[in-house]
Every structure is written in structure tokens, then in C-alpha cells.
User: What shape does this take?
Amino acid sequence: ALGYHRVLKDNANLYNALQDLKGNIRVFCRIRPAMESGSRSIIDFKGDDGSLIIIDPLKESKEAYKMFQFNRIFGPNSTQEEVFNDIQPLIRSVMHGYNVCIFSYGQTGSGKTHTMSGPSCGLLKDMGINYMALNDLFQLTQSRTYMGSDGLKLPDANIHLVCSTMDILNLIKLGERNRLDCSTASNNRSSRSHSIWTVHVQGRDTSGNAIRSSLHLVDLAGSQRVDEAEVTGERLKEAQHVNESLSCLGDVLTALARKSSHIPYTNSKLTQILQNSLGGRAKTLMLAHVNPEADHYRETISTMEFMQKVSSVELGAARLNKERCDVLKLKEQVAKLKKEIAKRD
Ligand code: ADP
Ligand code: MG
Assistant: This one.
């Protein structure tokens, strides 16, 4: 089983180089620690080549292995800092004018919220990507005010002006309180809702070019099949709704991969909200979360298959949301002339 690592290594390097060229869609995998210590892991990976194998716990032969390829794999002992370090360049590209969208995907209990928010809100220990990303952006920027205005208008959503890391922490707490968190059979901290953090960035680069971009940090609801959660009534309806929006996300990515003339963004709220960040202009990162235990084999394979679909998407090079300085000056001149003409009339 170990020999395959060496064979794959060259392929993996090539794959990663191609991904860099492609530039705008990446797939990372994070394997959470086993819930029961000492249990045998069904996931085997070496670490630096991005490949992993999943072993079918019910089969013994060679056919029991399924292999998957990622741009980066984080093992069960990975820290929040290690994960963030690999994501930081992507976060920083928002400041250069790219739209960026980061998804946390996986079945309930696989560690999605742990990666995005951290173990518990309000504590500064082990904070997740949401906090570290915003903190990083704050440290990068000199003028410390943003006001967002772009994107789909959501009737119940407010835009908050944030001026400090403390403001963000308070917003995280508010958001988590608002988030629908009810228990299902599969996990008592199951999130049956998607949580989306959007940061709008506006500013000018050192040459005076206007920059306007957005960063979406998305903690998706659990991807497990409805029957496994053993839910009924209202809960069942919600679970079906969640599954529907996740499959819409898959459909959008597939349509993008096929370069279809129609991309079905409007089939779900989720894809509608993220429309600007899922097209050819944006950089997308999918963080697959999996559980290493045999009980979760089926869900782990289904997460891997979704990721495979995602990584086959080729969106073309990401584009900057930048207006060049001279264009801006010309626009200003045109506006001035128009005013003068209006005065004469
Ligand atoms: P999800 O959001 O995918 O449903 P959670 O992030 O809520 O899953 O994780 C379920 C539980 O497992 C939480 O108690 C969380 O703190 C813990 N957990 C998940 N991933 C890790 C990790 N990488 N290290 C330590 N604990 C983790
Ligand atoms: Mg969660």
C-alpha cells in the first residue's frame, strides 16, 4: 500500500502545478481526529503529495482502496494555524481585488465549524479561519473602515461596519446565536443551516487604481443523506432543503465545468448569493472535512466524490476587480463635462 505514494508523487506535483496555472479553484481536505481514541483510521495519506486513499472497512482485497487527489491535506493533528497559513495567500488576494469564496464542506460532525469558527465562540484560543482572515485583513489595511454595498439584497440581513477585531468577535457571537442549531440523531451540534460571512473590501492600490472585491467564508450545513439523520416532520423538510441547496451548488459547479451556456445560479438562495464569487472571475477553495472512522465510510466517500467533481471544474484564470487609474480619471472628466453641458442647457 505504501508503494503507491511514490508513483503518485510525480503526478501530484504535476497536478498541483496545473492547479496553479488554472489558478482559481482549489480543493483541500481536513481529516478530523478520531472520536474514539485508538480506533483504526480508514484514511491513509502521506501528507505532502496531496493524495490519500480510503479503505473500505468491509473489504480486504486491493479493490478496497479508493484514491483521491487534493491540493493539500491536513491530518488529524493539524492545527488551526497550519490550516490558516495555507489559506492566507488566498485571503490576501482579496486586498488585490480578487473575489474569493471559501467553502467548508462535509457531513455533520466532520469539523466544518471547527475550521471556520473554532471550538467555541468568544474564546481566543484555536480561533478559526473567519476570525484569522478578518484579523489578517485588518492588519493589512491602514484605513480601518469598510462599508459594503454590493451583492444580492437580503431582506433580513444587516451590513455592519467593523473597525476592530473586537467588533468582529461580537459579530461572530451574534451570528452564532442567530444560527439555527438544533440536534439531529447524528450529532447534537448539527447545523442545519449554511452560515455565510461576507466581507466587502473597497480601496485603492498604491497606483491609485480602485479596488472592490469580496470575500465569502461559507460554513455549509451537513452534507449527510436525510435518511441517516433519522429526522421527521419540520426537521425532515429542513434537511431536504439543505440537501437540495448543496446539490444546486454541485449543479452550478458542474455547469461551470461543462462551460454550459446556462449556469443554474437561481435554483437556490445559496448559489444566488454567491453568484459573483462562483463564476470565472473568482478564486474558490473547497475545504472537504472527513471523519477517519469506519462508521463514516459511506459519507466520507460521498464527500470525496463531490470534491472530485469540484476539482474537475476549470474556470479560467481569475480576474481582478480593478479599474485602472487613467480610466477613473477619464470617467471623472466625462462626469465634469456632462455637468458643464447640463449647466449650459
Ligand atoms: P460540523 O460543523 O462539521 O458539524 P463541528 O466543527 O461542530 O462539526 O465538530 C464536531 C465536534 O468535533 C466539535 O466538538 C469540534 O470541536 C470537534 N472537532 C472537529 N474537528 C476538530 C479538530 N480538527 N480538532 C479538534 N476537535 C475537532
Ligand atoms: Mg457545523
DSSP finds eleven helices and ten strands in the chain.
